[in-house]
Write a structure and sequence with these properties.
The structure holds 2 protein chains of 2 kinds. Chain A is mainly α. Chain A is built from 5 helices and no strands.
């Protein structure tokens, strides 16, 4: 993993190699449970509003107007607005805009 | 990776059908994503969830309209198969954009996921789905 782990091996849990891992459930079961957590109504509204444009979507999140933000409490809303604003800055820096 | 490209294609196809999305899921894209995720995870089970998320997010354009819900769903499914719950929703949209535009490293992404992955039965409950009409 990282240099931190090398420096403090006594504090680190032993990583579990993927070759030793067996799924806790089948792909179908995991996917069905995962899908059940999606807010389909908000997702569809977002797809309609932003057309799959991630930057427009980030601007909406930064403004606090994204459909998925309706269910958030005030601290969560502020946190997501801050995350999106930060992401926009990073992306625009990457794009040189 | 816990699941293969064919399983992901079938599952994403179901998601597309369930959401009335017309999308072709190219198994070659999923195979490439799984190969990249394997490299990113580097044999560490705890890195599989951010690894598959990153590898698919980089291929968001190839997944088209399935990317928005499909990639978070695959990440959640991988987490569940590892006995974990991924407690993030809109944050995954933000992270997907950052990955897509190269505005986050894998180590940073892994650290974010580490804070949002909890053993099943711990952490905040999942959000209730609002059923479409």
């Amino acid at each position: 993993m990282s240099a931190h782990h090398s420096a403090h091996p006594e504090n680190d849990p032993t990583p579990v190699p993927t070759s030793n891992v067996r799924p806790a459930m089948s792909a179908k079961e995991a996917f069905a449970l995962a899908w059940a957590e999606i807010d389909l109504e908000a997702s569809r509204e977002a797809a309609t509003l932003y057309g799959g444009d991630e930057l427009i979507e980030l601007e909406a999140i930064a403004a606090g107007t994204h459909p998925k933000q309706r269910k958030l409490d005030a601290p969560e809303l502020d946190d997501t607005k801050r995350q999106a604003a930060g992401a926009l800055v990073q992306i625009r820096n990457k794009l040189g805009a | 990776m816990l699941f293969g490209a064919d399983e992901l294609r079938d599952l994403l196809g179901r998601l597309a059908a369930g959401q009335d999305i017309v999308a072709h899921v190219d198994v070659a894209v999923l195979e490439a994503a799984i190969a990249e995720a394997d490299q990113l995870a580097a044999g560490r089970a705890e890195a599989e969830v951010p690894a598959i998320f990153a590898a698919l997010a980089r291929r968001s354009r190839a997944l088209g309209p399935l990317a928005q819900d499909g990639i978070p769903t695959v990440a959640r499914a991988f987490a569940l198969a590892h006995g974990l719950r991924l407690t993030a929703d809109i944050e995954l949209d933000i992270l997907r954009a950052r990955v897509l535009y190269g505005a986050i490293t894998f180590d940073e992404l892994r650290a974010v996921f580490a804070a949002k992955l909890h053993p099943l039965g711990e952490g905040p409950p999942p959000q209730a789905r609002k059923r479409p009409r």
